[in-house]
Each structure stands twice: as structure tokens, then as C-alpha cells.
Specification:
The protein is mostly helical. The protein is built from 13 helices and two strands. The radius of gyration is 26 Å and the shape is elongated.
Length: 316
């Protein structure tokens, strides 16, 4: 599954983020802007998906009638349903493409941010070792002390020695050999018996001094703010969709709770930058869904009014 987060799209997002940072100098704002740009690019597909979903919802009563009528004849039921879809120009699978594309972009964005987090975290450690901890400022964001660490009350402002070792092993493809040599020269890593190891005492001393120099001694990196927001916004987004589509209410009640809980876990264990992307995407989807719902309801009311006027004229 690594190809989902390690591909040319992830590489392209990485390049764009780095390019925009040269002008904006704030990764959180860059991530917010790129998130909006990506969602605007896929807006036509979003509109198509929501239009098709609404048409499916409007067919709900007729579909239920067919299910009751042909309850004992599945083949006939399937044929009648397909005829109804063709007659109303509804494509049940049309909503899958936007969802698949958005999931693919989610993985790609995760991969791009993983590369940036790798680069920036190692850079923080090396700059602290080379320039002195008093000359290195952790990238804070609102209540989060380090943008590259999770917004979690269980995470430190810098990775522990064990976490840093796992970090280096997991992101080996994003860290250059020259960087590893520099870490080794500063006495932060060793290759004991040919195996990569973090020099725990040296690393802990450096990171503890860095945290102290930033006035963050004894503090956790965050307060679970973004993970909770991710879960709440995803729950509301799904509830909003189910309310507009009765067929989803029957099929997705369990998912209404499972996916938000999953998003809380993902954001509580991932870097804050990715959590920002997730929350902004959810909020965007909620606003877009509300706007499109209001638009389609207004259009349907006008159509009903025109239909009543025509009927009244015919009876006069």
C-alpha cells in the first residue's frame, strides 16, 4: 500500500508546499491554502457526486416500492431498479470516483507531509546540535508547541530517543546519507554492529535543552484539540450526508461512529500538519454540502411552483 503515499502526486504536493513556503514562511498557512486549492480542483467531481446522491435520495420511495413488490424475485427487482435508474438518468456508481480520488489525494498528502516532517524534524535536531539550542525556535501553531509532532497530550514537544530511532527507520527513504553522516558526526546516532542506534544520552540531553530553551519544559505538545475537531467534523459531515440521503441511513449507521473515531486516532498519532489538512478538508466539505443542499432545495421548490402553476392553468 506504500504506493498510495509514495507516488508522483505526493512528490508534486511536496514540491508545491516547499515552493509556497519560500513566499509565505508559515507551513500551517501553506497547508491550509493547498488544501483549499486541491478541494477546488476536485469541486466539479464533488458537485457531480452530490447531484447524483440527491437524485438517488429522491428515488428512495420508488425503490422501496419496487423492493416490496418484487421481494420474492431478486432478478426481476434488479431489472426494474436498473430500468428506473436509466429512466431517471441516475448512475448509482457515479459517486465512487470522487470518493476514490479524495482518498487517493488523502494518502498522497500524507506522504508529502511525511517527507516534510522528516526533513524538518531532522533539521531541528541538527541545527540545535550545530548552532546551539538557544538559536532554534520550535515551529509553534496556536496551542501546539511543535507542528511536526502530534497534537496530543501524550506526545512530547520532541520525539523521544526511541521515537526518533523509529522515525529514522520509517523515513529512511526521505533522509539523505549526508544527513545521516551529520547526525553521526554530532554523536547523535551510531552504527553499533552495523545496526542503526540513537545515542540516547546525547540525544536526550540535546532535545531536553532545546525544549527548555523554548520554555516548554514539562509540557506536552498539545491537548488533542485537532484530533477531537477531526472526529466531530467528520461525524457532522457524515450525519449531514445521511440526513440528505435516506438510503445511507440504513447502510451507514455504524460508519457514522467508526470513521470519526478512526480519524481521532489517526490525527492523535500523526503530525499536527496532517491534522490541520484533515480538519480543513472536513470543514470545507460541510460548508460545500450545506451550500449545495440549499441550492438544490431552492431549485426543487421553484420546479414544484412551476408545476403547480401549470396544473392550475390546465384546470382553469
Amino acid at each position: 500500500m506504500g504506493f498510495l503515499s509514495d507516488n508522483f502526486i505526493a512528490d508534486g504536493i511536496f514540491v508545491v508546499i516547499k515552493w509556497m513556503f519560500e513566499f509565505i514562511h508559515d507551513y500551517s498557512i501553506v497547508i491550509l491554502l493547498i488544501t483549499l486549492v486541491i478541494r477546488i480542483i476536485v469541486l466539479p467531481l464533488d458537485i457531480k457526486q452530490r447531484k447524483n446522491t440527491r437524485m438517488m435520495a429522491n428515488l428512495g420511495p420508488e425503490l422501496e416500492s419496487l423492493k416490496k413488490r418484487y421481494a420474492n424475485n431478486p432478478d426481476q427487482l434488479n431489472r426494474k431498479m436498473q430500468e428506473l435508474y436509466r429512466e431517471r438518468n441516475v448512475k448509482p456508481m457515479a459517486g465512487c470516483l470522487p470518493m476514490i480520488l479524495q482518498l487517493f489525494l488523502l494518502f498522497a498528502f500524507f506522504g508529502a507531509l511525511r517527507s516534510i516532517v522528516s526533513e524538518q524534524t531532522v533539521s531541528l535536531v541538527l541545527r540545535a546540535a550545530h548552532d546551539g539550542v538557544e538559536n532554534v525556535q520550535l515551529p509553534q501553531w496556536l496551542w501546539v508547541h511543535n507542528l511536526w509532532q502530534p497534537d496530543s497530550g501524550l506526545s512530547g514537544c520532541m520525539p523521544s530517543a526511541a521515537e526518533f530511532l523509529t522515525f529514522l527507520q520509517t523515513n529512511a527513504g526521505s533522509i539523505t546519507p549526508q544527513t545521516m553522516v551529520m547526525l553521526q558526526n554530532h554523536g547523535l546516532i551510531t552504527y553499533s554492529g552495523g545496526t542503526l542506534q540513537v545515542a540516547t544520552e546525547a540525544y536526550n540531553t540535546l532535545t531536553n535543552n532545546l525544549i527548555a530553551a523554548n520554555g516548554l519544559t514539562g509540557l506536552n505538545n498539545g491537548w488533542f484539540g485537532l484530533p477531537v475537531l477531526a472526529g466531530v467534523t467528520l461525524f457532522f459531515q457524515q450525519w449531514q450526508s445521511m440526513k440528505q440521503n435516506p438510503t445511507m441511513q440504513q447502510q451507514g449507521k455504524m460508519m457514522l461512529y467508526i470513521f470519526p473515531l478512526f480519524s481521532v486516532w489517526i490525527c492523535a498519532t500523526s503530525n499536527t500538519a496532517f491534522s490541520i489538512y484533515w480538519v480543513v478538508s472536513n470543514v470545507y466539505a460541510i460548508i460545500l454540502n450545506w451550500i449545495l443542499d440549499a441550492f438544490y432545495k431552492a431549485r426543487e421548490r421553484k420546479a414544484e411552483e412551476r408545476s403547480r402553476i401549470v396544473e392550475r392553468k390546465q384546470t382553469e
